Amino acid sequence: MSRPDLRFSRTTILDAVPYRDHRDQWVRSAQPPRRQRPWKTILITLGIVLVLCCGGAIFGGYRLFKSVENATEPARTAAETFVTNLENGDVDAAYGLLCKPTQAKFTLDAFKDGVSKQPKIQSHTFGGVNVMNYNGKVSATVALVLTADTGFTERHVFPLVKEDDQWRVCGQPY
Fold it and tell me: For the whole prediction, is pTM greater than 0.70?
């Protein structure tokens, strides 16, 4: 009696892959080969790339917003402080926020006289800001909507320059 061929009756770890038998011929394993799913791999890869790109875009947008805000906020604050001082009647403090060329053009008494001849500012709202850097000289314009005690509303643009790392109102201030 001959011995049965046990190669095909037992399940071994080698059954998962093809192998060569003693006659040097390829023998298939008892299990069918796994189907490859390239679309699944492609879609997972694309999903990961999409999530990373969206995350990068959101992060980049946030950083851009913050850098613009950091560049414009000090100029806006300087103009609003100037107008708030005028609203409160603190002309001396407002005069201290003028740039050196404007202070040279208007003495404190001339500035006080000019402010007294204007209608008193009752309130103001922010209208916009623009910061420019031209050949290393940083300047800005801040638009504020001024409401006078007479009820008259005017959009006024305040030119500002950066002197000694401080924003100053320059030109015809009010």
Answer: no
